[in-house]
Amino acid sequence: MRVWLFAALREIAGSSSVEVPDAPDVHSLLETLVERFGNGFGRIMGSGTVVVNGRTAQRDQVLSSDDEVALLPPVSGGSCRDRPGPAGE
Questions:
Q1: pLDDT band at 81 (very low <50, low <70, confident <90, very high)
Q2: 10: how many CB neighbours lie within 10 A of its CB?
């Protein structure tokens, strides 16, 4: 199964995608990747998002070998009112 990695996860793995032997569910997939890449990977994915076939997935979602999986680290940012408006308003 090909797993796409983004941002900090890509940096930890040293690649934008990795091959993973078939995993029965998202939780097992993440455990496999933590074993491969370490606890830092696990800490990030503790609050990251898993996307399977274009839809956000829960940790208990069943996987099949033809699924497309993407792992996204948490994203932070301010609200629109934290940003100045046009011309620095």
A1: low
A2: 16
CA 4/CA 76 separation, integer angstroms: 20
Lowest-pLDDT range of 3-7, 22-26, 75-79: 75-79
**Are the C-beta atoms of residues 72 and 49 closer than 8 Å to each other?**
yes
> pLDDT tens for residues 8-35?
999 999 999 999 988 999 999 999 999 9
Beta-sheet strands, E only, within 36-81:
49-52, 55-57, 69-72
SS3 category, 11: helix
37 CB-near residues (< 8 Å, 6+ apart) = 12, 13
CB neighbour burial string for 26-43, b if at least 16 within 10 angstroms, e if fewer:
beebbebbbeebeeebee
